[in-house]
Amino acid sequence: MRLFGIETEYGITREDLDVVDPVVESMELVRAHLTASFERRWDYSGEDPHEDSRGFRVSGLQQDKEEDEFAKVDAHRPFSFHEMKSDLVLPNGARFYNDHTHPEYSTPECRTLRDLLAHDRAGERVVQRAAERRNRTLGGPHVQVYKNNSDFHGHSYGCHDNYLISRSIPFPSLVEGMIPFLISRQVIAGAGKVGVEAQESGFVPGSYQLSQRADFMETDLSVDTMHNRPILNTRDEPHADPKKYRRLHLIIGDANMCEYATALKIGTTQLVLELISCNRAPKIEIDQPVVAVKQISRDSDLKAVVRQKNGHTLTGVEIQEQYCVAAEAQFAGSDPDTDWILREWRQTLMLLTADRAQLVGKLDWVTKLWLLETFMREERIGWDDPWLASLDLEYHNVNAERGLYLGLEAEGKAWRLTTEADIEQALSAGPSDTRGGLRGLCVRRFPDQIKSMQWERIQFSGGLMPKTLEMGDLFTPEDVKACAAVLEAAASPAEAMTAWYRRKDARS
């Protein structure tokens, strides 16, 4: 069973201010989405980032300390924690909120790559339309929003890809199978970056690398996400029946503008998880994974080699090729989506070393490099010119009038799987075959009767008895569509819940 989603933290700035308060700006951006007053609905009690998939619970996280510091700073602000978060669930089942210093858009759960791409692109539109409404209030195009991962001042923000997986897969098997793949995934999914950047040293110009997040990876495994950032996050927060499922929460990925790169990133990762589940993943052990991430990222010629524990070396492309071969042997012919992923994965790896120019408009790091090299030739400047960092940032601007990538797309120079109709549909409704679609349907049908929401639960208000839609095990397309039919036919949440649970009882 395939189910995945993407959480994107957007960069935000005010061009009319010398000093920007990102907390306030992020909150105001999210609030600009609203046409009515904010109502608190998201239930944080179901979120527990302290559970570790390695079988223990951590007593505290570094981010807890940072949140405490934020609380002290925020104490003077004229709004509560929940007002600051401004957590919204949208009619398409997505979540849009202020992640303290960044507006964040989480897609609804998706089952197909086409749906995921449409909802990822819908997120760009939601954020940009909110920025436009905010700017109308401010009287000028002052707020600009970027789908990227660093501010060139030593700070990184994430793009997290999430996958539903079986609890039966031993976590050590996930670690063994995923770390080499994630280290090398940047050769197809990196967003590209001018210079080198880290919290301790700030921004150092003069080079180009594949990934924006590589500089900020600090350890192999960790439950943390904001400090001591891991290649493989160990947070055990399934948002589903914990006896049956895990949610693999990956924080190493870049935010992609290219639809093709997003499709490959998610599609290949899903296939690798399926390889691991049937014990068919390649046996590769990298000697120093954190070092390897940076080595691969900082060589755009793709010749850097990383050392295995057996003493042999591999390039990032060679690691990817081993996973691709294993997936071809195991899954070729399974279904059209799988065959598309396998075909494009193989073709991309070949072109990376044979004819990279064919990947312009498909892979972000290749596209951005082509743009920057073209600009450098025309302007006769080098990699150390500060102009390039500004161009890097504008590549990710989600304002169609300024974004360099969106400009290429408008000229027909970028690969598309989605259409404008797909994106508009994703703005109005979630996938019809996932619980994300159910969440959005409840928001559209019963907006004034929702008491609280979590990823796996919706509680309705009114009446003598609580009325709750439990979705912790609601994953098959048949069950989702049956529940949707009940919700569509009912005149009230109480009527819907009565009919739905009567149906479930009859089947059990």
Describe what this molecule looks like in 3D.
- The structure is a single chain.
- The chain is an alpha+beta fold and 508 residues long.
- It folds into 2 domains: 418 residues, Creatine Kinase, Chain A, domain 2; 74 residues, no CATH class.
- Helix content is 43%, strand content 16%.
- The chain contains 17 helices and 19 strands.
- A 6-stranded antiparallel beta sheet has the order 5-6-7-1-9-14.
- A hairpin with a 3-residue loop joins strand 3 and strand 4.
- The longest helix has 26 residues.
- The chain is globular and about 70 Å long.
- 45% of the residues are buried.
- The model has no long low-confidence stretch (mean pLDDT 93).
User: Which regions are unreliable across 5 or more consecutive residues at pLDDT < 50?
Assistant: none
**Gyration radius, in Å:** 22 Å
CATH topology of the largest domain: Creatine Kinase, Chain A, domain 2
Largest sheet: 6 strands, antiparallel
Class derived from helix and strand content: alpha+beta
At the first level of CATH, the class of the largest domain is Alpha Beta
Strands of the largest sheet, in order across it? 5-6-7-1-9-14
Q: What is the β-strand count? A: 19
- Helix percent reads 40-55%
- Mean model confidence by pLDDT: 93
How many structural domains can be distinguished in the coordinates? 2
CATH architecture verdict of the largest domain:
2-Layer Sandwich
Q: In DSSP terms, counting alpha (H) and pi (I) runs of 4 or more, how many helices? A: 17
Strand content: 15-25%
Shape: globular
Distance between the termini: 22 Å
